[in-house]
Design a protein that fits this description.
The structure holds 2 protein chains of 2 kinds. Chain A is α/β, with parallel strands linked by helices. Chain A has 13 helices and 11 strands. Chain A has a 9-stranded mixed sheet with strand order 3-2-4-5-1-8-9-10-11, with helices on both faces. In chain A, strands 6-7 form a two-stranded antiparallel ribbon. In chain B, helix 3 (35-42) packs across helix 4, helix 7 (112-124) crosses helix 8 and helix 11 (183-199) runs parallel beside helix 13 (231-244). Chain B has 15 helices and 16 strands. Chain B is α/β, with parallel strands linked by helices. Chain B starts with 12 loop residues before the first helix and ends in a 9-residue tail after the last strand. The chains are: A alpha/beta, B alpha/beta. The interface between A and B is large, with 87 and 74 residues. Strand 3 of chain A pairs antiparallel with strand 1 of chain B, so a sheet runs across the interface. Chain A: One of its GO terms (biological process) is reciprocal meiotic recombination. Chain A: It is found in: Nucleus. Chain A: Residues 84-273 form the RecA family profile domain.
Chain lengths: 346, 361
């Protein structure tokens, strides 16, 4: 690896090159004070440079137990880890089935669709379902809801939480001893208190909150889901330089992916649609461009199929492309075959 | 928050001097650049850049609330402007919500301005009569505001109040009408409004209609750019709504819907939808495009078919898709059916205008 690839400031790099230090080996046996004198920089800066050098060289030759490369794990270890993972149910059994159990943790899932199809409804449903206690088949974690459009309505979250609790109590017999203790936790107010809500009014705040999430998640270790509704809105409004927008979005998606792996949580991004000129006509596609479409692990498109709402898995590394119909009811997102009474919203 | 100055964020002085020396003064400047660009620009190493960005982000990030706190806040402040149409109020869980953008879209002459006039009156009424007891700002871009009609609606809906001496005048004095003639004037008045909304106890903002503003701007030849000229105003309207927690009602126009307009996803293939051909004669679509449709929180579609007029709740986070038949009377809009008719599927987004044209009868 060359000096030019080291993460140091440009002026120090140019000084190194002008003094003839072009490769890492030339710096391997120099003391910090000698380097400081050579480059006429402060001692601390010389120490930093040598530390950067040693970081890059030791990583190549360290001994790691299982993987040959530091930070790697074998596929077998990953398989056992994946099988132990719980998924976040969407509320609709058909959709859960085609997703392989639900929304996966440690992955970034993008959900997009036309206005009014139910993206925010799905977001709120996931924020409630992630809090279902482990005894009832859920993750028992909390949710972070980052709202950029102002479409989160607390009254609707209340309705959905109520509907979720009603269905759980319906499904599980409530007389067994182990369920009695966590039944007390099944209160609508507890579910609402477990959603951390951020209201974002510009793309600067959006970038700031994603940067800040690392600290926040370290403090609140029980968060298992981060939803951004929607990731597109501010980036479509005020960003004039599209190339810069692509770079900033790339940085955002990398950071989100890192957060999902580090804290073992699911990240769900809600996206809008736009039209794109392909094959001689305008087609509907998710917003933010082609480069963004590579950033997410999974992609689900919600669309109208005649008079039905359908969810189509457009992109996923582990499940096949498939479509499942779903309904938006008074109690939240449900499948078509589930037994329910269509409750009127009062 | 985006324009927060870096110098006031409590960074170590040497660091904030480096930022200001390179003309990166606000959080927006710093966070819009990727970290490697910042490193090159400021000539400091990556670890320092990362910690600086982390501190700036923490300072710029808005505080969080739990869902429970949000609900309690909503309960306290009421949260809705009742339209006095029981069916619609039920469907919207109380009425037009505070802090969100509600859009009324429909063909011309169907009753959108009548609805707005009644809302303006309702917001101005004292609280004992179900109003918000505040001022109303009515931005009238098509010169449709008629104070005489509004007083007529008032006398029809609340006869006992309006006969009281001087009350009609007091109500009318609370409604402030402005008539901007260009988008820049509109933006300027929005900017000033942000400060004065709270001071002057404005409880409702109506823009009738927003589509007209875009039509004026087309003269400058911006049709070539695919980005809407309303971009800046849109997010600003939303932030005004959030910031001052007032309901914002916006009226939109319709334009005709040709079969080319039916966009499909790539994965659905090119299927010829035969049912579309019979609908295309009366099929209209909302103006301002899909970006606007995403941005509004609640969309109420006014349409006419089979000899009746309907208000449909097309897009709303808290309502099922229902349609209410209505008529326009001297006392404003009245619903004929308080229960509402449930509308299945994508029909809820269709706008039709059949059966109310006198020439075809």
């Amino acid at each position: 690896m060359e000096i030019s690839n080291l993460p140091i400031s440009p002026s120090i790099r140019s000084k190194l090159l002008s003094k003839g230090y072009t490769s890492l080996s030339s710096l391997s046996s120099i003391s910090p004070s000698f380097l400081a004198q050579e480059l006429s920089v402060k001692l601390e800066e010389a120490v930093e440079v040598l530390r950067a050098v040693s970081d890059t060289t030791t990583s190549k030759s360290a001994h790691i137990p299982n993987g040959i490369i530091p930070g790697a794990v074998t596929a077998w270890d990953m398989l056992s880890e994946e099988q132990m993972q719980r998924h976040i149910s969407t509320g609709c059994e058909d959709l859960d089935a085609i997703l392989g159990g639900g929304i996966h943790c440690k992955e970034v899932t993008e959900v997009g669709g036309v206005p009014g199809i139910g993206k925010t409804q799905l977001g709120i449903q996931l924020a409630v379902n992630v809090q279902i206690p482990v005894e009832y088949g859920g993750l028992g974690g909390k949710a972070v809801y980052i709202d950029t459009e102002g479409s989160f309505m607390a009254e609707r979250a209340y309705q959905i939480a109520e509907g979720c609790i009603y269905d759980i109590l319906d499904k599980f017999p409530s007389n067994s001893r182990e369920f009695l203790s966590c039944k007390e936790r099944l209160q609508v107010n507890n579910f609402l208190a477990g959603i951390f809500y951020f209201r974002i009014c510009s793309y600067t705040e959006q970038i700031a909150v994603i940067n800040y999430l690392e600290n926040f998640l370290t403090e609140h270790g029980d968060v298992k889901l981060v939803i951004i509704d929607s990731v597109t809105f501010h980036f479509r409004q005020d960003f004039d330089d599209l190339a810069q927008r692509t770079r900033v979005l790339g940085g955002l998606s990398l950071r989100l992916m890192k957060l999902s792996k580090m804290f073992n949580l699911a990240v769900v991004l809600l996206n809008q649609v736009t039209t794109k000129f392909t094959d001689g006509s305008f087609q509907l596609t998710l917003a933010l461009g082609d480069s963004w479409s590579h950033s997410c692990t999974n992609r689900i498109i919600l669309h109208w199929n005649g008079n039905e709402r359908c969810a189509y898995i457009e992109k996923s590394p582990s499940v096949a492309s498939a479509s499942a119909p779903y309904l938006v009811t008074g109690k939240g997102i449900r499948g078509i075959n589930s037994n329910f009474k269509r409750a009127r919203i009062m | 928050m985006a324009n927060k100055l870096i110098s006031q964020m409590g960074l170590p002085p040497s660091l904030s001097h480096v930022f200001s020396a390179r003309n990166i003064l606000t959080a927006k400047d710093a966070l819009s650049l990727p970290e490697t660009d910042l490193m090159t620009l400021l000539d400091i190493d990556i670890a320092l850049v990362r910690s600086a960005v982390a501190s700036i982000s923490e300072a710029t990030c808005p505080p969080f609330q739990t869902g429970l706190a949000l609900l309690e806040e909503k309960m306290k402040s009421g949260g809705h402007l009742s339209t006095l149409l029981p069916g619609l109020d039920n469907a919207l869980c109380g009425g037009i919500p505070f802090g969100a953008l509600t859009e009324l879209v429909g063909p011309s002459g169907i009753g959108k301005t009548q609805f707005c006039l009644k809302l303006a009156l309702l917001a101005a009424l004292p609280e004992c009569y179900g109003g918000l007891n505040g001022r109303v700002i009515y931005i009238d871009t098509e010169s449709k505001f008629s104070s005489r009609r509004m007083i007529e609606i008032g006398e029809g809906s609340f006869p006992q109040i309006f006969r009281l001496q001087g009350l009609a005048q007091k109500m009318a004095e609370r409604i402030i009408v402005t008539r901007p003639t260009s988008i820049s004037e509109f933006n300027d008045s929005l900017q000033q409004m942000k400060l004065t909304l709270l001071q002057n106890e404005v409880k409702l903002l109506i823009v009738d209609s927003i589509a007209a503003l875009v039509c004026w701007d087309n003269e400058k030849g911006t049709i070539s750019s695919r980005q809407s000229p309303l971009r800046g105003s849109l997010s600003f309207l939303k932030s005004i709504a959030e910031f001052s927690q007032v309901p914002v009602v916006v009226t939109n126009q319709v334009r005709s819907h040709s079969s080319d307009d039916t966009f499909h996803y790539i994965f659905k293939g090119h299927r010829k939808d035969t049912s579309n051909s019979e609908r295309s004669e009366s099929h209209l679509t909302a103006a301002l495009g899909i970006q606007w449709a995403h941005a509004v929180t609640i969309r109420l579609i006014f349409e006419a078919h089979s000899g009746h007029r309907f208000i449909k709740v097309a897009k709303s986070p808290i309502s099922p898709p229902v349609a209410f038949p209505f008529v326009v009377e001297s006392s404003g809009i009245t619903l004929l059916n308080q229960e509402g008719i449930s509308v299945a599927g994508s029909e809820i987004n269709a706008i039709r205008c059949k059966g109310c044209n006198i020439l075809t009868q």
